[in-house]
Amino acid sequence: MAEFKIRTYNNIAIAGLERFPRDRYEVASEIQHPDAIILRSHNLHDEPLPETVKAIGRAGAGVNNIPVAECSRRGIVVFNTPGANANAVKELVIAAMLLAARNICQGWDYVRHLEGDDHQIHKQVEAGKKRFAGFELAGKMLGVVGLGAIGVRVANKALALGMNVSGYDPYVTVERAWQLSSSVIQASSLDELLGICDFVTLHMPLTDQTRGCIDQGRLASMKDGAVLLNFSRGGLVDEAAVLAALDAGKLHAYVTDFPTNALKRHPKAICLPHLGASTREAEENCAVMVADQLRDFLENGNIRHSVNFPEAVMTRAPGTTRLSIPHANVPAMVSQISACLGEKGINIVELLNKSRGEIAYTLIDAEGEVGEDVVDAIRTIDGVLAARRIP
Ligand SMILES: NC(=O)C1=CN([C@@H]2O[C@H](COP(=O)(O)OP(=O)(O)OC[C@H]3O[C@@H](n4cnc5c(N)ncnc54)[C@H](O)[C@@H]3O)[C@@H](O)[C@H]2O)C=CC1
Ligand SMILES: O=C(O)CCC(=O)C(=O)O
User: When you count CB atoms within 10 A of the terminal residue's CB, does the N or C end of the chain come out lower?
Assistant: First the structure.
């Protein structure tokens, strides 16, 4: 019988699934009691998470489809793959700016509906093309909201196309700030950015804080004829307000990866079927990265790139049994856990304790064998969310 069971949702690239050796892992979409789940955009909010789940790996960036708060309460570690699909999204955003600026979709549609022989088509092309005249990217101001893995890449590439770029991100990391070109102008607020940009592209996560942040008032503050690009999540914008802005000519175009019935019919909305990360390269990058992270967690208890737990990586000490213990970040947890081992005369060889907000995580390499009775005792400590023995 396999040591670990992985339940998959969505189309996970084979290169990632192959990272799980089949002598130790069972990997399938029908598994009822999985140790871990791998998914892309499947919505986990609407279904109960089996008791056996210890980790969830999002092959991608956004985790709004995962009940992260519930996972934290249950000691389930949620992983994502920062940056693994960022280049794919960046390339599509650049394409999207061109689609909008040059009215490519409308022009393409016009040509597809032309009738007559080639001579007549040629005449109609030359007569009709003025309806699709557009404008160039060079010299225009692009506003990038969210300077993470995708936003930084979009900002830098837009500069290379001759655009001016303004960026806004109240939580930008030092790593991303280093990657961002010094030519990007820092906006001190979203409102400041919106008022000066010809194109605005959204690259922040969908959270309670960001939901609906592009609303009627903010759209009104944008430049007339601006282009809004949303390859992040549909919920970031107030859709009715966007439709009204398109109707009023306030927005030249809305380009989005998140269609709805109203948007897909609108002549100024360009809707794509959530294609941002759908490249062979991005799908493989994400699947391989998330598979490696899940394996290291299941086999060693190590945590890399979690969205709800701290980074925790410890080399395994020889001749020991590893204990993986997610718990609340409150005083005296480590002393209570080590007392459970001490009572059985078990020596601790290595110990790592890391915290992140209200959550903490302890990894212990204990000398020799550790019985399940010790793990059971640890589980009963108030504040311990889960405990696992890894031989
Ligand atoms: N269309 C698609 O297929 C894809 C969509 N996405 C979406 O794009 C989002 C961003 O992806 P990444 O750049 O990889 O994530 P990331 O985590 O590297 O970057 C997100 C950035 O947004 C910033 N941020 C958070 N709250 C903000 C706020 N209120 N205002 C401005 N900035 C804020 C963060 O500080 C961070 O720098 C994801 O959360 C996901 O929703 C990601 C990949 C593919
Ligand atoms: O897996 C996908 O195609 C969606 C990617 C995405 O939206 C994300 O990574 O946040």
Answer: N
